[in-house]
Amino acid sequence: MIIGIGANVYDTLITLSDMPREDTKMRADAVKISGGGPCATGLCAAARLGAKAAFIGNLSRDAMGQFLVDDMKRYGVDTSLINLLEGAAFTSFIWLNKKTASRTCVFDKGMLPPLVLSDEQRSAVAASDILMVDGNDLDAAVDAAKAAAENGTKVLYDAGGLYDGVERLLVYADILIPSAEFALGHTNAENIEDAARLLYEKYSPEVVIITDGKQGGVMYDGTEVWHYPAFPVDAVDSNGSGDVFHGAFAFAAEMGYNYKKCCIFSSAVSALKCTGVGARESVPGFDEVKNFLKERGYNEL
């Protein structure tokens, strides 16, 4: 079981032929509602690939919250540990630039109360193989990480945001996967190779994997800095590609792949996701990923 605590976001995706200039009007090519958020999308990706996955969190007791619950169910994620409460949902508006395949996000974190773990939720963490966290709902994530550490559950930290107090969570990470932006900003290193070493030395995870978009990324396990590839595709929507990478990594790790194979597998899943619109619905199935990799000479997966 892969269980997660973090952001679950009501996304409005706005597809544009190019980015608008300030103080002008522009007609959208398409507008679409989608579930988003690093942790929640990662769990949907893991479930789509074949893992058992569950989300723990607070969602709004309104149409937005119900959409997010139903969306996670659609991908096979267990929603029984979600609390539906009064308050405003975490929302975002995402501009998808067809010309460059880039995405620009403006978000509002809403007004829901912070998550406080129940005994049932804490027990579910302890019984899981992997706990995914993204730095949101930080106090509950730290509480869950402590329960994970006490019960042999590995903690995978999707470190994308430089939030205050994240050091409290970083110390529990077994699999630390920061973005290049986070890694460089947190360590003040000049390059991601040095950042990987510094993060490993300071927080002592099993492995550090830094994601660097179209450049692929690096992995450091205390012995060598190893570069993993990005896979070129005809991208139409890069939004959520990092979230999908983390979910795919959790799935691959639970499958028993070594960390190098996890990097290659997750990079392929992330690339394939970018060929369709929607962070969750564009996640490929397991067999599609294996065929994609075989076509590129990776037969060991």
Describe this structure as you would to a colleague.
- With 301 residues, the chain is of the alpha/beta class.
- The protein has a single domain, classed as Ribokinase (UDP-N-acetylmuramoyl-L-alanine:D-glutamate ligase, 3-Layer(aba) Sandwich), CATH 3.40.1190.
- 36% of the residues lie in helices and 25% in strands.
- It has helices spanning 38-49, 63-74, 119-126, 138-151, 167-170, 180-187, 192-203, 241-255, 259-273, 286-294; strands at residues 2-5, 9-16, 30-36, 53-60, 77-78, 82-85, 91-97, 102-108, 130-133, 154-159, 175-178, 207-211, 217-220, 225-228.
- The strands form two sheets. Strands 1, 4, 5, 6, 9, 10, 11, 12, 13 and 14 form a ten-stranded mixed beta sheet that branches. The protein has a four-stranded mixed beta sheet with strand order 3-2-7-8.
- 47% of the residues are buried.
What's this entry about, in short?
By secondary structure, the chain is of the alpha/beta class.
Roughly what is the average pLDDT, rounded to an integer?
95
What is the CATH architecture annotation? 3-Layer(aba) Sandwich
Oligomer: single chain
Global outline: globular
* Low-confidence region ranges: none
Task: Give a quick set of tags describing it.
4-stranded mixed β-sheet, UDP-N-acetylmuramoyl-L-alanine:D-glutamate ligase, 10 helices, 301 residues, single chain, 36% helix, 10-stranded mixed β-sheet, alpha/beta
